[in-house]
Amino acid sequence: MSFQVYIANKRYPAVGLDLLRKTTQTTFLTYLEYGEDSLKEIKNNIKGCDGLIWNTHHPLTAEILDLAGPQLKVISSTSTGFDHIDLGEVKKRGIPLGYARLVLNNSVADVAVGLMIAAARRFKEGVINTESGNWELGTQWRLGQDITGSTVGIVGLGSIGQAVVRRLKGFDVAKFLYCGRREKPEAKTLGVQRVSLEQLLAESDYVILACPLTDETKELINANTLKMMKKTAVLVNIARGGLVDQDALYEALKENRIFAAGLDVVTPEPIPKDHKILSLPNCFVTPHMGGATMSNLNTKAIIAAKNILLGLEGKPLLYPVI
User: Fold this and answer.
1) Start and end of every D-isomer specific 2-hydroxyacid dehydrogenase NAD-binding domain (predicted)?
2) Gap between the Cα atoms of 224 and 264, Å rounded
3) How many domains does the chain have?
4) Which helix (H) or strand (E) is 52 found in, with range?
């Protein structure tokens, strides 16, 4: 039996497409990833699919599921997160949903360390001064913060948080802290102490956000929690932009109430070039590129294809969310 599989965005690697095309008819819905035009194209063409690969930042809503039709048998995201998918609606319809679990751990952890160094050592200011011809001799103007001997607090000691700790072991960090909903058995082996969020913020020289975005964690970093942090602290966000009240962070950085921030995720994405957070010399922002390696892209495509093929056969998905 032939199945119709729709892929929301044409930026989908050939290795995954080759797997799908062996047994299914496969159609791309759009070249575009952002904007109303791309969403309109998806809505106009999604009807009748048996499998859906949702490789776009557009929210997967009840409306889109209704437009797809009741024959939809399986969905797979190519991302490791699924906060852009209405899980309640998918579950209500009894549709298996898969995702690309564990793929990005190492590459995102690498970027976390990079952001720590870039923000703490004032790379943005250094590049601006170098490229503008204002390179000043001496070091007093560009003194940064050390990682050696510091306390690093990780909000969310999941697989990515653990990968960050393993990398930082070589930096001679004095103490690792974490907070989360439950005790992590790996923490003892890694030498990470569980504390409350309040204690973590108060004691940490580096605060790394590596937790999922949920109703509970939305704007976890806000005007109140920023006040708990050290004036010399560096905030690093490698998870989701919605974890941070960006207006509150802007004010804290502008007034030097914390030392710096390194952000791979922001709100909105893509962020406008004239957004005020980008004007700050002590805020280093990268365009959500934590998982952006060729290896990761291909691996996510293969996992999504396998999830779809398994779902179409009525078998358990490789990495199920639902």
Assistant:
1) 113-290
2) 22
3) 2
4) strand 51-54
The pLDDT value recorded for residue 32 is 64
Whether 318 is in a domain gets the answer: no
Helix (H, G, I), strand (E, B) or coil at 320: strand
Same domain, 110 and 203: yes
**C-alpha distance across the termini of the chain, in Å:** 25
* Residue range 228-269, pLDDT digits in tens: 999 999 999 999 999 999 999 999 999 999 999 999 999 999
| CB contact at 8 A, 115 and 262 | yes
Burial 120-129 (b: 16+ CB within 10 A, else e): bbbbbbbeeb
Residue 73 CA to its chain's centroid (Å) = 27
CATH number of the domain bearing residue 60? 3.40.50.720
The DSSP H or E segment spanning 199 is helix 197-203
321 is a domain residue: no
Domain assignment of residue 259, yes or no = yes
Q: What are phi and psi of 122, to 5 degrees?
A: 65, 45
Q: Which residues are catalytic?
A: 288
Residue 15 backbone dihedrals phi, psi, to 5 degrees: -65, -35
Please name the amino acid found at residue 166: R
Write the CA distances from 4 to 28, 70, 242, 320, integer angstroms: 11, 13, 35, 21
Model confidence pLDDT, tens digit, residues 134-187: 887 876 777 999 999 999 999 999 999 999 999 999 999 999 999 999 999 999
Residue numbers of the domain that contains 99: 3-103+294-312
From the number of C-beta atoms within 10 Å of its C-beta (0-12, 13-18, 19+), residue 233 rates as buried
CA proximity to 198, closest of 168, 175, 229 = 229
**Whole-model pTM?**
0.87
